[in-house]
Structure formats: C-alpha cells, structure tokens
Amino acid sequence: MSEKLLVPDIGEFEKVEIIELLVKPGDQINSNDPVVTIESDKSSVEIPSTISGKIESVNVKVGDKVSKGDLLLSIEASKVSSSEKPIPKDTESIIKQAETVLENKKKEETIQQNPVEEKKQTIIKVINDSDIDPLETQDWLESLSAVVEKDGNQRAHFLIKELINKAYREGANIPYTQHTPYINTIPPEAEVKSNGDQNIERRIRSLIRWNAAAMVVRANKKFPELGGHIGTFASAATLYDVGMNHFWRAKNNKFGGDLVYFQGHSAPGVYARAFLEGRLNEKQLDSFRQEVKPGGLSSYPHPWLMPKFWQFPTVSMGLGPMLAIYQARYMKYLINRGLIKDEGRKVWAFLGDGEMDEPESLGAIGLAAREKLDNLIFVINCNLQRLDGPVRGNGKIIQELEGSFRGAGWNVIKVIWGSYWDSLIANDKTGHLVKVMNETVDGEYQAMKARDGAYVRDRFFGKYPETQELVSSLSDKDIWRLNRGGHDPHKVYTAYDQASKNQGSPTVIIAKTIKGYGMGKTGESVNTTHQTKKLDIDDLLYYRDRFDVPLTDEQVKNVEYFKPDEKSLEIKYIKEKRMRLGGFLPERTTYSKPIKAPAKDIFDFMKVTTGEKEMSTTMALVRMFTNLLRDKNISPRLVPIIPDEARTFGMEGFFQKIGIYAHEGQKYEPEDSAQLSSYREEKTGQVLEEGINEAGAMSSWIAAATSYTNHDIEMIPIYIFYSMFGFQRIGDLAWAGGDSQARGFLIGATAGRTTLAGEGLQHQDGHSHLIASTIPNCISYDPTFHYELAVIFREGLRRMHEKNENVFYYITTMNENYSHPSMPKDKNCEEGILKGMYKIKEFNKYKKTKIQLLASGTILREMMAAAEILQNEYQIDSEIWSVTSFNELRKDGMEVERYNLLNPDKDQKVSFVEQCLGKTEGPILAASDYMRMNSDQIRPYTDKSFYSLGTDGYGRSDTRKNLRKFFEVDKEHMVAYGLSVLAKEQLIASKHAKEAIKKYNIDGSKPMPTKI
Ligand SMILES: Cc1ncc(C[n+]2csc(CCOP(=O)(O)OP(=O)(O)O)c2C)c(N)n1
Ligand SMILES: [Mg+2]
C-alpha cells in the first residue's frame, strides 16, 4: 500500500530549504530513519520517516523550500498488522513510567505491611524551656515509644506525618525543622560491627599518622618555604582508614572501581599509606612538594603532575563537591545509555567543613538528590576549624549542614560522638546531656579540645547539675577520653556501611573530628593548627607517645619514617585488605580504546562554497554535528552538553534525534509533542541539558572528558555555551579540567565583542581566547569559515580521541550570517589552518605599496572588505591572512625563540609567523573581535612593524555596524588605520590617511573605548 510522507510540524518555520536528500527511490527504510535535512536561517534538522517500507518516489530536491504538510516521499509501506504497529515513543515511555510507579508503590506497600523488626530505640528527651506541660509531653513521648517498639520506625514516621498534616489543615503554623538533636543519627543498637582487627588497624593508622606528619616536618626542615599540612589529615585519618580497609574497591580487570575524591590538604596521609603499601619509598616521601625533579610528590592531588596516582584535582575548594556530584550523575548517564555496566560503583568525596562555605560546594546538592544519586557519598570532616579560626564559632556547622542537605533531599548521617559517649547518652534520663550538646556552640567545642578534662567537666558538664552528676564518677582523664565520632572506627564503619547500602538518594556523612588530633598543645584544636608544618622535638615525642609509634627518642629527633618489616602483621594486613578490595587506591589507569577519527570526506560538504546561502559558524557547527551523528564510531560517543541555550544555537533538532538524558524518562507528554523538534526526555537520552548552570555543565564536561580513565571508555564531550559565560565564569573548573587531562571540545558560541550585537556589556566576549591561552593544554581557535571549522574539528577528533593526546580544544563560533567560500586549493592551506594562519587572498595589481593584513573570526571579513577598498580606491596591494589562532602562533613563536636562545651555535629555527610573513612586503596590521592583546601575542615573532586593532573596553548593546565602528574594527577604520600605518612607515604620504579619516568621519580626538 502506497503511503505519503509529509513535512511534519516544524514549529514556527515556513518555507524551509531542503539541503540534503538522504534517500532515493528503491531504498528500503525503517520508521525513524532520516530522509531529508532541512535548514532554516537558524538551524538544520533531519526529518525522520514515520513509515517503514520501500521508497517509490522522492518528491522534493535539494534547494526546494518546504512547509508543514508538503509531500516529501511516497512509500510502499511494509505490512504491519495493527497489533504490531509500533507504539509512539512518547506513549511508550509514559506507559513504562506508569509501570515503574506501580511497581515501586507495590514495593512500598509490602515494606509497610512487613515492617522490619526494629531494635528498641532509646528515648532521648530534649529539654525545652517553653514546655508548658512536661507531663503531657511525657505522655505523648511514651506513646510514640510504644509505637516504635510495637510497629517500628516507619509506622512512627507515618503517625507523626499524619499529626503534622492534621495540625496544618487545622491552621497550626508549624515551623519546619530540618535539624535533629545533636547526637549520632545511627543509635548504638543499630550499629554494624566491622570484621577488622581493631588493634592492628589502630597500629597501622598510627604509623600512617606519624609518617604523614614526618614527611611534612622533614620537607620544611630542609626547605622552610615548602609548606604543607599536618592538622588536616590528623583530623581525618580514621575517616580515610576505615574506607581504605573496608569499603573502597579499586579498579581492576573485573570491576570499574569506586572513585574517591580526597580532600586536597590531606595528601600527606594518602602518600603515607602508599608508603606502607610499598607503592612509594622513603626517597619519594622526602621529595614531597619538590616536583621539579621528576618523581617528586605533588603538594595536593594533581593528575597532571602524578598521572599514575591522582585521579581528581580537589584542592581548589568547592570544585571537589561539584565535580563529584556530576561524576556520579555521569556514571548513571553511562549506565543508562548502556555504555558501561551497572556494578554498584560509588563516588566518595571528602570535604572540609570550611570548604562547605564555598557556594559551589552546596551549589549542586539539589541536583544530586533530584537525580537520586545513590552512588554518591559525601564525607564532611567537621573539625570545626578552617584556616583562620572556627568555621562557626557562634553556631554549629554540623547542624547547619544537616539542614541544608536534609532540605535538599539527601540521606544525612551525623557521626558526632564516639563510643565512650554511648553509656552517658543512655543514662541521660532527664535529657539534660542532649540539651547541653544542643546548646554548646562550636567555638566552645573547639576551645574544650584545646584544654583538658577538667576544663570540659567545668565548662560543658558543669552547665547543669544533672549533667554534672552524670559524670561525677568519671575522672578528668576519663572525660578527656570521651571521643568524637569521626575518630571512632566503629562509628565511622557503621556510617559507611549504611551509606553504601542506601538507595534512592545520595548520602552525606557529617563527621565531627578534632583538627590536629594528637598533635598536642601546639597543634591540637588551636586556631593556628592549619598552618602548623613544623613540630618541635617535644611535640614530636608527644605525638609518638600519643600513638605508640615504635621509635626511639633518637629516631624521633631525626624525624625518621617508620615502616614495619614486610612480613609484619601490619604490612600483611594492610596489603591483604587492599587485595580483597581489588587493588590500591588512588591509582590512575587507562584501558579505553581509541575512537577512529572519521574519514576526511565526512566534512567534504564544508569544503565547498555555500554560494548565496548565508550561515553563521555556529550553524555550520550544528550541521557538522548532524553529519557526525551518522558516523557509527563517533555517534554513540558524542556527549552534547548544553546549558539551556540549544535554541539559541539552533540545536533543538537534537532533542528528538538523540533525546535529552533524564534518569526517569519523560513522565509527561510535552506541550510540543506533535512537532519535529519536540522536547524529548529519555532515560537513554544523549544530550546533557544542564539548565542555566555553566559550572554544572563544565563539571559534566570534565566527567565525560576524563571518561577514558575513570570509566575506561573514550567519550567526546562537546560543551556549547555563550562564550562570555565560559572561561570567564568557570575559569577555575577549566583549569582543573586541564589538570585532569580532559579531552574534548569547548565551543564558545555567539562569540566576539561586536559580533554578538544587541546583548551588551555582560554578554559580549572580547577576551575568552586570552583566558584559554593561560591553560597550557588547551588549544584554541577562532575560525571564520566553515571549512576552517571542519579541518580544526576533525584534527581535534584525531589528536584527542584517536591518538589520545591529553589536550582539549576551545573553538569560538559566531552568530553572524554570511556566505562561506570554498576551501583554497593550496596544499598548505590545511596545515596553515591548524598551525594558526594561512594566506586567504592577495591583491597585487599595482605593485607599488603593500601591506600585510591579518585577522581572525568574522573580523577577517571586515579586513577582506578593507583590502578591497585599499586596492580599488588607494592602489594599495595587500596580502590577507586568515589567522585561525593567535594563541597557537604564539606557542610556536615562544618555543622557537627559546630554542634559538638556548642554542645560539645551532641552525636557528624560524617561527611559523616568520615562515609566513618573513619574505612578504610591507608592515602588518592585525585585528580580531578580541582585545588587542590577542593579536599582539605574535608581535615578538616577526621583525616587521606590527600594528593591532581590537575590541578593548566594555561591550555595549547596539548594531554590529555601530559596534565595529565604536571599537574601530570595521572596514572603514581598517582602511584609515592601514593608510596611517603605511604613512608612519613612510611608504605613502600621510595626506591619504588624513583624507580617509575625514571621508569616514572618524574623529581623531575621540576617547579610547576603554575609557567610556
Ligand atoms: C578556593 C580556595 N580558596 C582558599 C584556599 C586556601 N585554603 C586552603 S585550606 C583552607 C582551610 C580549609 O579548611 P577546611 O575546609 O575546614 O579543611 P580542614 O583543613 O579543616 O579539613 C583554605 C582557606 C583553597 N585551597 N581554595
Ligand atoms: Mg575544617
């Protein structure tokens, strides 16, 4: 039966051009196969067939303009019985969704019907001064305890929720509290015991503590300028050790490995453990913070400097939390897209309590909960101090963080008190102990740990007679021994155990510790702990004794490391524990397979002129992606990342074609479901649509760009953003991306200070290339024409994803529409595009006076127009150079100059700039849509006179024409400046320049754009 395929609803567009026919008569096609590509002035989209069968006739040709309802093809449809008719995708996902909801509901019901038998919960009374009827309160509490005992926690929760609902409906204004009392979330009865040997583990931990401190002290004895930290790891040692001994599984040939983001300043502790494990030797420990000689140990986790060890750069505070969240989300993305197996891998991130004040640290916690990232565990080491003093002297950081995370939907586990407190809390029949705990602020908690047991008795337990009584039988020493949760391996183990098993939400473990734990009077819990890097002999002896390190006084004086014999119980234990968990951590390895770059001809269509058709480079890029999606090797590996600008960039066609990643699929029928570019969310969706969130999008990009090492699968992330909201906004993340050896593309779209016209000061980018040039492994380009883009992009794919070079690409694309010429036939053109410049045109009619004109991006077109005027109206010849990358030219120039200076007696090399311009005639005038500094970068690498134009100053909204006039990068200014340059070089008389300045109404006394 013959069926007709019509142009579907293409939104607001009409008379859209057909630019490609993807099928011909006789082809057998399936439903959803693309048949033609259409292009508006903003975007190009493939139209998929809705019918399977054999094509009888194609009723359109390239160049035709079509609108909704026009006939595209006639197809002899394959016979599909109505029962076999495919369910439309949207409906299918809605059905799936409904089924899952039903299933979950069923599960919930069964859980509710069969409450897990709960152990008896201790009732903790919290004394409240505003309690007008304590007896009545007692009644209610007892009823609740009875419910907990009889029917379990879930039932109790249910009743409380119902009570609250009822009160709310009856008009009670119930204040919402996100805080629980200042005690551990997991009661002692619910604790899980570790199967580890606690004695050996303590001995190992003590040695790690000692060696970590020793390496910092030794380095600073030799070179006091090196610095380092002892106090941070001292507070976190137990938190790391329990993970290392019992929880964190390494990557090996059977398992992908858990990913652990270590807190930057605890690096000495991680090295100290690696020393006991036999992965680092004494010489290496002695080269801590001396990295210039190969083999030195990095101050902090830096994969660039220790590429086989560190996986994640975390020391710039706030980046670790964001990167870890997006890493966990990306892991789920890979699983849901079927690219890696779901092995229950976890992402653990260790963070400082001071670090949590960075807005980035909390900035993405909502996403983690929304995406149900139960593969993510944060451990916040609340030692109550940051660098200068207490994190919340007047408040309680643990409570505050609990509120933030609970409010965001996380599973919160507070580990505040160690086991020695258990019996005290159990005996707190009046509730006064919890009251004191709640009332005491962090400044007091910190001060207490800087003093002694007597002080704690007086200042803490002494607050109420009831609490004083509670510790009356304890000595001051006993009181001093009351430990904090983060230093108690049992409490930490049970928290990790519960966190690892939690489902449906991310978990945060908020652990209370002591900064500089064990460092004694000069370093424990004092405001200067953070910066303590030298310990005097008394401190060292105290530290040895405190942790029973088997060193003689003499050895302590020499600050010797201690490593037990290989056959000792400790070393055997530590190794055996790691072997059970699959290997050592951290370790950075890569087993991914390269992706073959597409054949050169995939971009051939971009090497021929677009003729009269005008398009922007942003649009050319989107066309190129559409083509790449047809490459079987490349397509599944592309990770398009967009921060709510797909429509701005003409990429909305991707929504239907490859779908938007949504871990729960699409629970609604989108408003535009009938349209070709309908908003389609899917569990297997490919696009990461990040919303208005550049930092998050960049974190996703880093996760995908390091997929080759963290997931052993090479991926091609392409993050497209408003160029101004790129490097300027997320510069530190880009730096961390470089450190991480990210591979992928960053596309600064709608770029240029005058090319993006109306948007104004905050939007118009005139410096992103300069910021990009600060990152050593970032390669950046500012192409003008579609073939330049194609050559650059393919080379990026080849270098990064086929040859696995650890570089990443930054390419600016623009939104100015113009016709693109064919690629010049010159065989060196491609090389020039990649190295940074090539000659695109020459005017050579008069052979009297010549000027070299260099420009990049759309400003090249102004320069080409100026050259034409110079030739036609002033008889000036010129050579025009398309500069695709001033940055790349500078890199080459620097290297050549350095080589020549260091090798004065050898044949001198010639920079690429000089290879191009050395033998040409006339001075150079260079311009771009960026600050003059952009083109000035190559000034030192040519002997010629060099003048530059650029867009220095704040942008502002206006038309492109007016902006270019304002910043003096339009063709008229170029003509006038060109003539002036030639006059200054005494190649022509100055009157020509004067005339041109007058002719173009240029006011010579107007202020610099930087001043207005
Ligand atoms: C973005 C950033 N700002 C400042 C610093 C400098 N700095 C290093 S450690 C530190 C204090 C850290 O306190 P906290 O997060 O509580 O960690 P702790 O050492 O107490 O575990 C500061 C301010 C940094 N590393 N990164
Ligand atoms: Mg801290």
Features:
six-stranded parallel sheet, five-stranded parallel sheet, 36 helices, 28 strands, binds thiamine diphosphate, binds magnesium ion
Short description:
By secondary structure, the chain is of the alpha/beta class.
Architecture overview:
The longest helix is centred in the first third of the chain and has 25 residues, at 89-113. α4 (198-222) packs antiparallel against α5 and α4 crosses α6. With 1012 residues, this protein is of the alpha/beta class. The termini are far apart. It is 38% helix and 13% strand. Mean pLDDT is 93; it is low at 81-88 and 109-121. It contains 36 helices and 28 strands. The strands form seven sheets. A six-stranded parallel sheet has the order 18-15-19-20-22-21, sandwiched between helices. The protein has a five-stranded parallel sheet with strand order 9-10-11-13-12, with helices on both faces. Bound molecules: thiamine diphosphate and magnesium ion. Thiamine diphosphate (TPP) binds at residues 232, 235, 265, 315-318, 352-355, 381, 383, 385-387, 391, 515, 530. Magnesium ion binds next to loops.
Largest sheet: 6 strands, parallel
Cα radius of gyration in angstroms: 34 Å
Q: Percent of residues in helical segments?
A: 25-40%
Distance between the termini: 70 Å
Gross geometry: globular
Major β-sheet strand ordering = 18-15-19-20-22-21
Q: Could you name the ranges where pLDDT drops below 50 across 5 or more consecutive residues?
A: 81-88, 109-121
Query: Which molecules are bound besides the chains?
Result: thiamine diphosphate, magnesium ion
Share of β-strand residues = 5-15%
**Count of β-strands:** 28
Task: Let me know the average pLDDT.
Answer: 93
Structural class per helix/strand content? alpha/beta
- Give the number of helices: 36
